[in-house]
Amino acid sequence: MRKYPLISVCVITFNHERYIMDCLNGIFRQDYPNIEIVISNDCSSDRTHQKISKFISELQEPNRFNIKYFNQEINLGINPNLSFALEQCHGEYVAICEGDDYWISNNKLTTQLNSILGTRYSACFHDVKYKKEGLIFDSFINQFSGYSISDLEFIKLKDLLQSKWLIPTCSFFFKKEVLDLPNFYHELKWGDFPLFCSISTVTDVYLVKGIEAVYRMDNPSSQINLVSPLSSIVFSIDMIRFLTWLKSKVDIPEVDERIFFQMRKSRNEILSFQNSTIYRIVSFIQNFISKYYYRLRVSKRK
Question: Which fold has domain 7-222?
Fold first, then answer.
């Protein structure tokens, strides 16, 4: 490979004190010679900042990488933090690795770049191992996507819309010029699926064979482990908002099918929430406050 285009590695992290060293070690061991590393720490309340700062200060070859570290003074939230970090990425290509995941191959970036250079693809991904309850398992895609990895060569937008969970975030690699996100992207409560889908409106996504990373599912503070009735409703509303935008970009039946699915899902989630303990508590507090202010107004009139 004669040319070494700049690759930006986009890292977002929040309260990953226990995991961030694995993430950084995997990134800084890459053999690719032209890397920009963008790290945005979302005002962690643990020692994530101290760990990152110490790691950077002790680098043996600090000039080998172009490092941009941002320690946010206020908590932005997952998607605003991702939006911010992506805006700081100036590479021709971008790879994503969240702070609790890590890469296990030193030539991951080189392999992914070589896999799509000179092809019709502007994005690629690969299978990963996943860590759960302290154990590491093979093939995230076989386990969670509803697809068999042996049957895949590349995926289209319709595959993303029909799958359960197809692209591991820490495996995604794309050409920056195909990034076309809705102007409300930073307002969404999650960012990986909209990112994958928006890029898939421009290019099919190539599957690079091999397992090059570990996706951590045993982080208690991970978004996948913070499910609540209210957050599920918000997620569905966000999903419908994004899918409506997607429909304005592409006219395929899978978008409509996913919208109808999310509408049914959100309706069921709202009904379920109304029967939940949280809803009853909130209703009780609301009624109590309403009665209190009513009595207060009556007493003032007297």
Answer: Spore Coat Polysaccharide Biosynthesis Protein SpsA; Chain A (3.90.550)
